[in-house]
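Technical annex, item 7. During the second reporting period the consortium partners agreed on a shared format for inverse folding records so that results from different sites could be compared directly. Each record opens with the tokenized structure and is followed by the designed sequence. A conforming record, contributed by the partner at site C, is shown below for reference.
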């Protein structure tokens, strides 16, 4: 029910003061029609449990939806510029909602589907204040979605400049609060010097004036600069959770109250210098913490633009380029199983796009020339060409890779063990403060005040929280600079715990650039070579690429009825000829062993012509890497090739290693499962072509990339294949991460023990405690940065 007294009535929805004539509806009072309308919307849809999250959580709704404000969203061109994905059934958009501010906002926005059945889902990124909304455009329009959001208090901020959504300028409020606190603290200290040094009794009038000036200067600090801590403490209490800001607020209010008492009674000048100093130095710590975290977040966002290459077509030539090099109006060649990196128009070929990466639906969508295809889809079938009409959205691809549907390990950060320790620690701090105050009240009242407030201020569980966050963030940054891109911080811990490493062979341990290829069989005419080149060019498999290079024919012939069967081969119709390339069993139907070398057979119109014989070329420094790993880990190789190199691999990996050949994708998955049933923590490293199932099943799946964009969302990490020889060092750095966190934990706990030891005895003033607390935070940052960077340098991973 609305809160009211003889002079004040508060709105049921937003909690703000109502005007002289509040609106009465549903036995409740509202300040405006907007708040009343939102309540009715929620009530009609059974969403009034919104109010149980926190009392009066709504945003002020005095601004109504202006008629035709979002009429521009009815324009097809505008819709196309804002949509990140659209098919026959649904549209995906990302909207910036600056009004998002608390957990009740998240709850309401993620329940939009209950307000309008045309909305399929909505997910909120709280830190970026963005909502990813999926809606059925047959049931609800983009304009209606924007109007619905506005009607419940979350008007989207939409800018059509360069078809990008604008963000407001950086929030500098914390800097302003710090500046005001510093100004007031400095002046309070200056006005307090006469009292510190002693003042003549004849100047008592002057002393009294200084005290009241200090009181006046302390008010902006108390009511503005300290608001950061009030809001944080209040929100934590509303959700029945004690965070570190609670004892800080208690200390500030108690210090201010004590100071007011001393001035009124004339017993002293109070502790305004200590109170303003507490807030000033705490804000310094918070600003430095935020700056560091923002830097880490930027580094993570930037380096998460993982290494994906794509084929660009220019004047009948093809060249491999990285995503940042792609420009508008470029023509891209997309092979079978390759990811579409940008929105574009299909200009050549027939596309069969698998959008499961985006929508979760595995049914491929057929696209004809002239139709739009969206980033994040995967081509299934023969090569296609597309004209880029939107810039490459690497951050969008990163977001798809990180979406929850593909995570094997989900962590609730708010309830992780570190936060539980911090909550328990806060209770201990409050208990220590009360106990020390009671003790000194009976033994030496002059120490009571100093001891109680110093304990509240000097305690720092936030250092416990920061040690884990900043160490993980810096390790992710360091690994990213060495081109190992991990999905999240949990993957670091998973890598540190592995005890078994499984490698794919072709394209992972071997280069895929076969310098020695021999053909045995019927003579291949120029026409057949052109057709072989055209078929082999459709695939990104290393052997297919090698055959295309060997045949050296025209790869731009049209391929009909193309199909690639992972682990077996490829086939297609080129100018009326049915060409097949693949394993012996796939081409001849003979599954008996015979070849002791890596081979690919070829048939033309079901007539077996011959076979290509490959000599594998292992990547540089791979033998040295294997020898380093075999001393610490169980090793295995799962290969789709024949057993021709069994003897070499057995000698390289050791006779206890598991080496299996003729492995189909399901066989690789089964092998990983068998190892896990034996209690092994398995890391799988493959190229993602035939290894998607195994990568997903493994405790850690690392997809290596080389001149292709065929990685899968199944992987926990993506590694540029040239960095594979550093694998042992990467694993050791992840192990160091845990040690660094434990060291910073130990330092933080030691700081708290020593600090509270002196605080309880009353030997630590409040102002010194206020300096020590941010100092402890800064020391944690120095330790985590210093040790993690030193560890990377020691392992020669520092760039």
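Designed sequence (site C submission):
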């Amino acid at each position: 029910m609305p809160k009211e007294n003889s002079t004040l009535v508060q709105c049921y929805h937003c909690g703000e003061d109502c005007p002289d004539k509040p609106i009465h509806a549903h036995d409740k009072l509202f300040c405006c029609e907007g708040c009343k309308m939102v309540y009715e919307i929620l009530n009609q849809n059974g969403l009034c449990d919104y109010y149980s999250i926190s009392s009066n959580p709504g945003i002020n709704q005095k601004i109504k939806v202006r008629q035709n404000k979002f009429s521009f969203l009815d324009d097809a061109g505008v819709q196309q510029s804002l949509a990140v994905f659209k098919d026959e059934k649904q549209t995906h958009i990302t909207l910036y909602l600056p009004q998002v501010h608390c957990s009740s906002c998240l709850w309401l926005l993620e329940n939009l589907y209950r307000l309008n059945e045309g909305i399929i889902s909505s997910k909120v990124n709280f830190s970026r204040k963005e909502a990813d909304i999926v809606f059925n455009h047959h049931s609800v329009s983009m304009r209606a979605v924007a109007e619905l959001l506005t009607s419940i208090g979350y008007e989207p901020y939409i800018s059509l400049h360069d078809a990008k959504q604008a963000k407001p300028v950086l929030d500098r409020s914390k800097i302003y609060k710090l500046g005001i606190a510093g100004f007031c603290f400095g002046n309070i200290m200056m006005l307090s010097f006469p009292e510190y040094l002693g003042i003549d009794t004849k100047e008592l009038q002057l002393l009294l004036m200084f005290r009241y000036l200090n009181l006046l200067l302390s008010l902006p600090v108390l009511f503005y600069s300290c608001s950061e801590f009030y809001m944080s403490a209040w929100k934590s209490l509303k959700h029945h959770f004690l965070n570190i800001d609670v004892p800080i607020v208690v200390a500030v209010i108690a210090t201010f109250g004590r100071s007011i008492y001393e001035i009124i009674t004339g017993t002293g000048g109070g502790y305004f210098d200590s109170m303003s100093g507490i807030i000033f130095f705490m804000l310094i710590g918070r600003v430095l913490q935020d700056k560091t975290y923002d830097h880490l977040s930027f580094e993570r966002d930037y380096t998460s633009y993982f290494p994906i290459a794509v084929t660009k077509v220019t004047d009948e030539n093809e060249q491999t380029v990285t995503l940042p090099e792609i420009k508008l109006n470029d023509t891209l060649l997309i092979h079978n199983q390759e990811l579409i990196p940008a929105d574009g128009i299909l200009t050549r070929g027939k596309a069969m796009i698998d959008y499961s990466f985006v929508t979760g639906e595995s049914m491929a969508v057929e696209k004809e020339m002239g139709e739009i295809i969206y980033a994040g889809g995967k081509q299934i079938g023969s090569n296609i060409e597309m004209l880029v009409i939107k810039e490459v959205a690497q951050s969008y691809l990163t977001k798809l890779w990180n979406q929850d549907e593909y995570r094997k390990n989900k962590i609730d950060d708010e309830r992780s063990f570190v936060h539980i320790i911090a909550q328990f620690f806060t209770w201990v701090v409050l208990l220590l403060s009360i106990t020390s105050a009671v003790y000194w009240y009976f033994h030496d009242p002059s120490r009571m005040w100093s001891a109680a407030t110093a304990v509240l201020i000097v305690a720092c569980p936030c250092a416990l929280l920061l040690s884990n966050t900043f160490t993980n963030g810096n390790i992710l940054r360091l690994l990213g600079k060495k081109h190992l891109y991990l999905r999240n911080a949990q993957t670091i811990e998973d890598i540190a715990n592995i005890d078994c490493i499984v490698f794919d062979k072709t394209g992972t341990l071997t280069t895929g650039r076969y310098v020695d290829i021999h053909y045995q069989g019927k003579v291949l005419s120029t026409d057949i070579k052109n057709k072989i080149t055209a078929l082999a060019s459709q695939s990104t498999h290393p052997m297919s690429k090698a055959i295309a290079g060997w045949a050296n024919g025209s790869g731009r012939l049209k391929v009909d009825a193309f199909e690639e069967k992972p682990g077996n081969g490829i086939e297609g119709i080129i100018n009326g000829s049915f060409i097949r390339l693949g394993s012996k069993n796939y081409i001849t139907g003979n599954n008996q062993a015979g070849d002791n070398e890596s081979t690919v057979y070829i048939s033309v119109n079901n007539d077996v012509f011959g076979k290509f014989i490959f000599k594998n070329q292992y990547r540089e420094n791979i033998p040295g890497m294997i020898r380093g790993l075999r001393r610490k880990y169980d090793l295995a190789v799962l290969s789709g090739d024949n057993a021709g190199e069994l003897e070499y691999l057995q000698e390289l990996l050791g006779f206890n290693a598991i080496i299996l050949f003729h492995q189909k994708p399901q066989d690789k998955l089964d092998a990983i499962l068998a190892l896990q049933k034996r209690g092994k923590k398995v890391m799988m490293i493959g190229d993602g072509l035939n290894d998607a199932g195994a990568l997903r099943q493994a405790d850690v799946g690392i997809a290596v990339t080389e001149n292709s964009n065929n990685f899968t969302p199944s992987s926990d990490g993506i590694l540029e294949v040239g960095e594979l020889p550093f694998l042992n060092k990467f694993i050791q750095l992840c192990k160091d991460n845990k040690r660094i966190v434990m060291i910073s934990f130990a330092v933080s706990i030691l700081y708290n023990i020593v600090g509270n030891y002196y605080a309880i005895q009353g030997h630590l003033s409040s102002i010194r405690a206020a300096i020590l607390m941010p100092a402890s935070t800064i020391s944690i940052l120095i330790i985590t940065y210093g040790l993690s960077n030193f560890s990377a340098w020691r392992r020669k991973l520092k760039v």
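The longest strand covers residues 607-614. The two ends are 61 Å apart (CA to CA). All partners now use this format for quarterly exchanges.
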